[in-house]
Design brief:
Layout (H helix, E strand, L loop, with lengths): L5 H11 L4 H13 L3 H14 L4 H13 L3 H14 L4 H13 L3 H14 L4 H13 L6 H13 L7 H4 L6 H18 L17 E6 L6 H16 L3 E6 L7 H9 L2 E4 L5 H10 L4 E4 L9 H5 L5 E4 L14 E5 L14 E5 L29 E4 L8 H13 L4 E5 L5 H11 L7 E4 L4 H8 L4 E3 L8 H8 L4 E2 L10 H9 L9 H13 L1 H17 L5 H20 L7 E2 L3
Parallel strand pairs: 1-2, 1-4, 2-3, 4-5, 5-6, 6-7, 7-13, 8-9, 8-11, 9-10, 11-12
Length: 576
């Protein structure tokens, strides 16, 4: 529950004076902050009934509609609010958020730019503009915006979104400071639930929970479903999934439902109800499969619904949160030297921390022509999200193309005018724009099939390919990467390392370009590398989900046993 929950006093005040429109607006804000979109919408509507057109009431109603998934309604209310208060930076920001979700990418950018122009010294607004410009590959003022945000984090002046901060050239210490600033905002506003008495260390099966907004056709669901199936088949763990999104009716959700001992739908519930559901299920060890990635509920986790809580998989950095006890990792992605910059105790697996769906079939691909690819020439690919395609990573990839006439760079189509901006940038680097080929978003099976046409995946930095790297390797496409100094910059390297293809982990941009060019010029060497990948995929253990399940279960049991014995969380390694 919240400390000194202001909603209680506001409700009492409104019983005495229900015609106080401002009080209804303030109540709406607090309801929304508590995750109760319906109550927030009702309070905002009461304010509008009293003060038609009031921009603050319209903004709260728009935010409530956004939380309820009614994106078009959210945009309509927020646009009206912005018209009625054109100099309000907060309303412009919320309009930007809503426009993102309705696919109006360039309009969202304009909204964030408007907010920043109204308050140029506010680093949070700079962070929103910076993050969205990265998504649009709009690199205007990129260095200045990044510097503003990083300086504010260093000075402790801004609790910016940690997930977006992963795309900046910051080290793990900076990332931890950013996460701690954000976590402290939440921690100050809540009072954790009463502590759960430790169970007797009697060997009883551990009830383990997983909280995510990705239990469906989503990278998280795709990465974890085969692991959950293996956990159900061969371990004593009792797995409970807590889904922050409604059932999409797809095959991944169906498999997850069958694999778990219970799947709890906690979508669109207030934070306190999410926490109460987890507590009611008797969960001992709870994995946060969203972290700061957006769409999660850190406020619910801050209530401490489980005695042991773990950061794993979705947020590749330290949570900085006092309510998270462990981070599950491997020693390549999170080496010993990085651990001091983590607020969590590290639980190291003896394999890559990232699981994968090994039940996926690889379909025959469509023709190269149907994919927009030339009939001949090396196909370099990078299907990372557009915000990872920064000037440095693109310059590196375009240097490869310049050295190999006839080659192309195959990219995932981005939002708004991102594709056009990348083609314009290619031209400034003396690469013909048409040598950049863009793939529209595809259903997962079709996307994997198309990946089979890619000769070599060119990774990005400082934010690597994660799920996309795993996808590429599963489809038989080698991944070339330059591991960096943060978890987010070392995931592709971890996959290669555990696959036994460490030669694809290079130590400089020059080596990256040279290795890609050498492989592009030597079809026999490239074919041999792909054959080695196919063999390693079968025998390296990277894609052995039964072995992964055994190591994962050992980690969970070790965490639970420490709690049962009354011991504080501490770093440990699982020995496979």
């Amino acid at each position: 529950m919240a400390l000194n929950d202001p909603r209680v006093e506001l409700r009492l005040a409104l019983q005495r004076n229900p015609s106080d429109a401002i009080a209804w607006i303030v109540l709406a804000e607090h309801e929304l902050d508590a995750g109760d979109a319906n109550a927030g919408a009702n309070a905002a509507q009461r304010a509008l009934d009293l003060r038609p057109g009031h921009p603050e009431a319209l903004a709260r109603l728009g935010r409530a509609q956004w939380m309820l998934g009614r994106r078009e309604d959210a945009v309509a209310y927020l646009r009206e609010a912005a018209r009625n208060a054109p100099d309000h930076p907060g309303i412009a920001v919320w309009l930007g958020h809503a426009l993102e979700d309705t696919g109006e990418a360039e309009a969202a950018s304009q909204a964030y730019a408007r907010a920043h122009a109204l308050a140029p010294d506010e680093p949070q607004l700079a962070a929103y503009l910076l993050a969205w410009r990265r998504r649009l590959c709009d690199w205007r003022d990129l260095d200045a915006l990044s510097r503003q945000v990083r300086d504010a984090v260093a000075a402790g002046r801004a609790a910016v979104e940690p997930f977006a901060f992963l795309s900046e050239d910051a080290d793990a210490a900076e990332q931890l400071r950013c996460a701690r600033l954000r976590a402290s905002e939440i921690a100050r506003a809540v009072r954790p639930l009463p502590a759960v008495a430790a169970r007797a260390d009697d060997g009883a099966p551990v009830r383990v929970g997983f909280l995510s907004n990705g239990f469906g056709a989503h990278p998280t669901g795709l990465l974890t479903v085969a692991l959950f199936e293996a956990l159900r088949a061969q371990t004593a763990l009792q797995t409970h999934l807590f889904a922050l999104t409604a059932d999409d009716g797809g095959p991944v959700r169906q498999r997850l439902h069958a694999a778990a001992h219970a799947l709890h739908d906690v979508s669109q519930r207030p934070h306190a109800q999410v926490a109460a559901t987890i507590r009611g299920a008797g969960i001992e060890v709870l994995f946060d499969l969203r972290g700061w990635g957006g769409g999660g509920v850190p406020e619910a986790l801050a209530l401490r619904p489980a005695p042991v809580q773990v950061n794993w998989l979705a947020y590749p950095g330290s949570s900085g949160a006092p309510w998270i006890d462990y981070v599950l990792a491997d020693r390549y992605a999170l080496p010993d030297w990085m651990a001091p910059h983590y607020s969590e105790a590290v639980a190291w697996l003896p394999r890559c921390f990232q699981p994968s769906d090994t039940a996926r079939a690889l379909l025959a691909p469509p023709s190269r022509a149907d994919c927009g690819l030339p009939e001949t020439g090396t196909v370099f690919a990078c299907f990372n999200n557009s915000y990872k395609l920064n000037p440095r990573s693109m310059a590196r990839a375009l240097a490869v193309l310049r050295a190999l006439p006839g080659s192309v760079l195959w990219l995932l189509s981005g939002p708004g005018e991102a594709d056009a901006r990348l083609r314009a940038y290619a031209q400034t680097q003396d690469v013909a724009p048409q040598r950049l080929v863009f793939m529209p978003k595809q259903p997962h099976a079709e996307y994997l099939a198309r990946l089979r046409h890619a000769d070599l995946f060119l990774d990005t930095e400082p934010y690597n390919a994660h799920t996309t790297a795993s996808d590429a390797l599963w489809a038989g496409c080698p991944v070339l990467t330059r591991p960096g100094v943060t978890f987010a910059a070392r995931v592709a390297g971890s996959l290669n390392h555990h696959l036994g293809l460490a030669s694809l982990n290079v130590d400089s941009d020059e080596a990256f370009v040279a290795r890609a060019v050498a492989l592009g010029r030597d079809p026999a060497a490239l074919a041999a590398l792909r054959a080695e990948l196919a063999q390693r995929r079968a025998d390296s253990g990277l894609f052995d989900m039964n072995a992964y399940a055994a190591d994962f279960a050992a980690a969970v049991v070790a965490m639970a046993q420490r709690h049962r014995q009354g011991l504080a969380p501490a770093a440990f390694s699982v020995h496979g």
